[in-house]
């Protein structure tokens, strides 16, 4: 079993199952914080899938896309924490 087979037959199905579970958590999350954390985790899992696909197809251009998605996910999390901080100060 080569590394490519391991990535394709083991890691990608695990990431797909985790994506489904995270999406369910996103839908039934009781609070806004839970939904934002689930959305951030969905983006992180998507970055992992893009990275695996980039390695499998030997196209490093997809790694740039993954880095941009990671930056957007980080900035979104920071913006949400800033929003929660301002909301708590107003209450």
Automatic annotation (TrEMBL):
<protein>
    <submittedName>
        <fullName>Multiple resistance and pH regulation protein F</fullName>
    </submittedName>
</protein>
<keyword id="KW-1003">Cell membrane</keyword>
<feature type="transmembrane region" description="Helical">
    <location>
        <begin position="6"/>
        <end position="24"/>
    </location>
</feature>
<keyword id="KW-1133">Transmembrane helix</keyword>
<feature type="transmembrane region" description="Helical">
    <location>
        <begin position="36"/>
        <end position="56"/>
    </location>
</feature>
<dbReference type="GO" id="GO:0005886">
    <property type="term" value="C:plasma membrane"/>
</dbReference>
<dbReference type="InterPro" id="IPR007208">
    <property type="entry name" value="MrpF/PhaF-like"/>
</dbReference>
<keyword id="KW-0472">Membrane</keyword>
<keyword id="KW-0813">Transport</keyword>
<keyword id="KW-0050">Antiport</keyword>
<feature type="transmembrane region" description="Helical">
    <location>
        <begin position="62"/>
        <end position="84"/>
    </location>
</feature>
<keyword id="KW-0406">Ion transport</keyword>
<keyword id="KW-0812">Transmembrane</keyword>
<dbReference type="Pfam" id="PF04066">
    <property type="entry name" value="MrpF_PhaF"/>
</dbReference>
<dbReference type="GO" id="GO:0015385">
    <property type="term" value="F:sodium:proton antiporter activity"/>
</dbReference>
<comment type="similarity">
    <text>Belongs to the CPA3 antiporters (TC 2.A.63) subunit F family.</text>
</comment>
